[in-house]
Amino acid sequence: MEIIKSNKGGDKGYVYVVKYIGISKITWRCSKRCSMKCTGELYTDLKIENPEVKTRHSHSKDDDSVKVEKDLCAMKERSKTGYLSHLKFMRQKFLSWTVTLERRPC
Known about the structure:
The protein is α+β, with helices and mostly antiparallel strands.
């Protein structure tokens, strides 16, 4: 599992948000819970390792969604720090997303 932000993570083409932090494990839910009514959930240990599927997803995986989420978080962090170069970074990422989306089959 790859951490994107303090409460977000990505694993095998899905993006998750923290649902609950327990004594020995963290429960993660699919970030598409509201928009796609997905009930996908998984558990990890407190070190955010050894992901274990609790409930399957109701939609197909999207490898690009994890990359896009990471880039969005990076852009938000750069804009908070006041770097003027984040505009160039944002433009570059936007152009790469456009190319990626144009290549995807309908």
